[in-house]
Amino acid sequence: MEAKAVSASRAEFTHLVLPPDTNALGTIFGGRIMEWVDIAAAIVSQRHCRTTAVTASIDELHFIHPVRLGDIVILKVSVNYVHKSSMEIGVSVEAEDPRSGLRRQTSSAFLTFVALDEAGKPTPVPPLILETQEDQKRFEAGRIRMERRKQQRLKRQKKG
Known about the structure:
Blueprint: E1 4-5, E2 11-16, H1 30-49, E3 53-63, E4 72-82, E5 86-96, E6 103-115, E7 128-129, H2 133-159
Parallel strand pairs: 1-7
Antiparallel strand pairs: 2-4, 3-6, 4-5, 5-6
């Protein structure tokens, strides 16, 4: 299986926050951000593995600043880490005030996707070519998070 560069699947998505996206305070519903994050991460994961990939977990989803009606939301998405059949996708969410152009980070998340074959069984994903020091840092941090998730899963299995 041929390795793929991080840049081969990296993507940026843009949304305008409209009234149906907001709550009574005029800020975006957290669930709308979660939806956009999951869809964007799914696209990037499938670009990397070129097969169906499904969400296995969403962890460390942080809401840092509110997003307001009329803001432009930018999601920056990339593959951080790959294992046998799984990938960690990192998503950084920014909001831009269209009047001033000021951008601020509003959310971030890490999602794990599993690649599936035609029978719906886990299938190997391509190795990742790390192109920059930032890619290397994200890869190592992703490896550590994967180990932590594995330990948590083992704890749950012992309890259950």
